[in-house]
Structure formats: C-alpha cells, structure tokens
C-alpha cells in the first residue's frame, strides 16, 4: 500500500514515515503543498495524509485541487493539523476529506489505524 504524507514538520514527518514503513506502507513525502498534486499523479497513493498548515499551497487548497482532478478525486484524504477550529474542520469535510485529525488528540498508532480503516473502505 502507498501513502502520501504532506507534512512540513520534519520530525513528525520522519516519525510518520518510519511508523508507516513498519506497517509495510510505501511512503512518499512532501513538505510543501505545491508538489502534492504532482506526487499524487506520479505515485497514485492509496491514501493521502495532508497537513493544513503547509507552505506554498495550504492543505485546504491542495484538497480542493485533488478533488477537482478526475484521476485523483477518489483517493481518500485525511486532514491532519494542530488547528482544532470548527470552520476548518467543516471546510475540509465539505471539500471531500474523509476525516480530520487534530495532531495533539491522536497518537500515531491511532492515525495508522484510521488510515488502514479508510483504505479498506475505499477498496
């Protein structure tokens, strides 16, 4: 299984990458929003873990572009952020995110469980 992780916090990105590799995922990472679409097109991930506060294009802008692209719109996207604002959560879910996780509320083990759940649902 392939996961695309869009996260600009280097330490968190590395930890997520290692944990998902331990779960036998092929991991593709991006630290800026502007490369997520190209990486998704090239790699066709099974799921995307997308931070809201990433440079160049924020996660909401990236999500909107993903969902408008016929070749990418079926890929489940889980938003992950430190922002626990109802407006952002609602916006992300309306645009097509399957879930919205607040980093401080969800340990990495739970993030992995949710990713697996949404991949199974998508198949």
Structure description:
The chain is built from five helices and five strands, in the order E-H-E-H-E-H-E-H-E-H. The chain has a five-stranded parallel β-sheet, with helices on both faces. With 123 residues, the chain is α/β, with parallel strands linked by helices. Helix 3 links the parallel strand 3 and strand 4.
Descriptive labels:
five-stranded parallel beta sheet; 123 residues; alpha/beta
Number of helices: 5
- The count of strands amounts to 5
> What profile does the largest beta sheet have?
5 strands, parallel
Label the structural class: alpha/beta
Name the average pLDDT.
Answer: 93
Q: Enumerate the spans where pLDDT stays under 50 for 5 or more consecutive residues.
A: none
The end-to-end span amounts to: 12 Å
Please give the order of strands in the largest beta sheet.
2-1-3-4-5
How large, in whole angstroms, is the Cα Rg? 13 Å
Order of helices and strands: EHEHEHEHEH
Beta-strand percent range: 15-25%
Summarize the structure.
The protein has five helices and five strands. It is an alpha/beta fold and 123 residues long.
Write the layout of secondary structure elements.
Layout: E1 2-6, H1 10-22, E2 26-30, H2 36-43, E3 47-51, H3 59-68, E4 77-81, H4 86-95, E5 99-102, H5 108-122
Parallel strand pairs: 1-2, 1-3, 3-4, 4-5
Helix pairs in contact: 3-4
């Amino acid at each position: 299984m392939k996961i695309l992780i869009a996260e600009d916090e280097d330490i968190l990105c590395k930890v997520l990458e290692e944990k998902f590799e331990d779960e036998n995922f092929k991991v593709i990472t991006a630290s800026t929003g502007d490369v997520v679409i190209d990486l998704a097109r090239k790699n066709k991930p099974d799921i995307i873990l997308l931070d809201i506060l990433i440079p160049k294009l924020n996660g909401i802008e990236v999500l909107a572009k993903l969902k408008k692209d016929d070749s990418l719109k079926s890929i489940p996207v889980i938003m992950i952020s430190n922002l626990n604002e109802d407006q952002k959560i609602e916006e992300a879910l309306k645009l097509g995110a399957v879930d919205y996780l607040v980093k401080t509320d969800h340990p990495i083990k739970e993030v992995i469980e949710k990713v697996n759940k949404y991949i199974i649902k998508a198949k």
